[in-house]
Write a structure and sequence with these properties.
Number of strands: 18
CATH superfamily of the largest domain: ATP-grasp fold, B domain
Order of helices and strands: EHEEEEEEHEHHEHHEEHEEEEHEHEEHH
Number of helices: 11
Shape: globular
CATH architecture of the largest domain: 2-Layer Sandwich
Bound molecules: adenosine-5'-diphosphate, magnesium ion
CATH topology of the largest domain: D-amino Acid Aminotransferase, Chain A, domain 1
Largest sheet: 6 strands, antiparallel
Structural class: alpha+beta
Length: about 375
């Protein structure tokens, strides 16, 4: 038999770009995938686009970055009618298998690394990472624990605080506590004081978040947050704070690097950085990169960003978001293990301003992932 298959060690690494997903951030994830597909160096990598439809089905997507661009106000979606695809873990490698109703499942090849471009639950929260660990396939970004802790704002606070990092004080109210003892829940929140912010513990894009100016607004704010998550966090409002974000990126050896920080300034009718201010272009949101901060504040903020990254055992990438208080004190708001990643999103913009262009950033993340085994590390 004439075996013409190329030498296994010589072939290009095959990247499965996984996007879409079951969370409300499906469309944003598709836009990101379009940008990443366009930016991956095809001389260096073979690329397989894998879409997760809103109902959770995995399909083999078309390698057409342009289809995934935003058209007007319409966000793209994974095409659920395409061929179903499954990732089959095996001791000898991890294959992507395509199944069509009328034919024998066909193997389209081994996957060397997965780039999970998913935001929110079922993707950014350790669930996909756990599946990839079980299948022994390498992947970009944080592992199971860091992803899960990063998704849950209440646990994130516990971990950051234990590492000696300043966080916003907050109390957790679960739906069952609220149903069984609303008087007790109200008292706990009142004791912390107003104004405060009620937020779903595991959401993103400011969904379900409201500012609670006084006790009269609490019930409605809790109900709104419970629509997204049975676990809600009520935090003290950091009045008068500036919002400054910092990119953290893994290196091949030693501690991760940080980008210059960037500031988000919300204006117009927006009392805080809400969903509209984040995604609707005409909402008076301004981004300053680098943020106008005294040099020593920037230095302190970047050092804290690394400490937060390490406190959660993050890998690959994260964006650490701070409140800079009127007296210059720094407080960590949150850490995102899969920050917005379109070329115009904050994280890639922070790196662009720090000298790293988008395609180079994508390549760094893939190379970091390829060099890291799954399992305990
Ligand atoms: N404790 C707080 N004090 C002041 N503003 C807050 C507070 N918590 C949230 N916010 C505002 O709400 C926005 C979204 O909250 P955040 O916790 O970052 O959730 P998300 O994961 O949805 O981005 C923040 O960017 C900020 O504008
Ligand atoms: Mg945020």
């Amino acid at each position: 038999m004439n075996d013409t298959s190329p030498d296994k060690t010589a072939r290009k690494p095959r990247v499965a770009v996984v996007f879409g997903g079951r969370s409300s951030e499906h469309g944003i994830s598709c836009v990101t995938a379009g940008s990443v597909l366009a930016a991956i160096d095809r001389e260096a990598y073979d690329v397989v686009p894998v879409g997760i439809a809103t109902d959770g089905r995995w399909v083999l997507e078309a390698d057409e970055p342009a289809r995934l661009a935003i058209r007007g106000a319409d966000l793209p979606e994974v095409d659920a009618d395409r061929s179903p695809v499954a990732l089959m873990g095996a001791t000898t490698g991890t294959d992507l298998v395509v199944t069509e109703p009328s034919s024998v499942p066909s193997v389209i090849g081994e996957v060397d690394v997965v780039f999970p471009l998913l935001h929110g639950p079922w993707g950014e929260d350790g669930t996909l990472q756990g599946m990839l660990e079980m299948a022994a396939v390498r992947y970009v970004g944080s592992g199971v624990l860091a992803s899960a802790v990063g998704m849950d704002k209440a646990y994130m606070k516990v971990v950051l605080q234990a590492a000696g990092l300043p966080v916003t004080p907050g109390v957790v109210v679960t739906r069952s506590e609220w149903q069984q003892d609303p008087v007790g829940c109200r008292a706990r929140v009142k004791q912390q004081g107003f104004p405060s912010f009620a937020k779903p513990a595991r959401a993103g894009s400011s969904m379900g978040i409201s500012k609670v100016h006084d006790a009269s607004e609490l019930d409605e704010a809790l109900e709104e947050a419970f629509r997204h998550d049975p676990k809600v966090l009520v935090e003290q409002s950091m009045e008068g704070a500036r919002e400054v974000e910092c990119g953290v990126l893994g290196t091949f050896e030693g501690p991760p690097e940080t980008s210059r920080p960037g500031e988000v300034r919300t204006g117009g009718d927006h009392e805080f950085y809400d969903f509209e201010a984040k995604y609707l272009a005409d909402q008076h949101t301004e981004i300053d990169i680098p943020a106008d901060l005294p040099a020593e504040t920037e230095q302190e903020l970047r050092a804290m960003a690394v400490r937060a990254f390490e406190a959660l055992s993050c890998e690959g990438l994260a964006r650490v978001d701070f409140f800079v208080m009127p007296d210059g004190a720094l407080v960590i708001n949150e850490l995102n293990t899969m920050p917005g990643f379109t070329p115009t999103s904050m994280y890639p913009q922070l790196w662009a301003a720090s000298g790293m262009a988008y395609p180079e950033l994508v390549d760094r993340l893939l190379q970091l992932a390829l060099r890291r085994d799954t399992g305990l590390r």
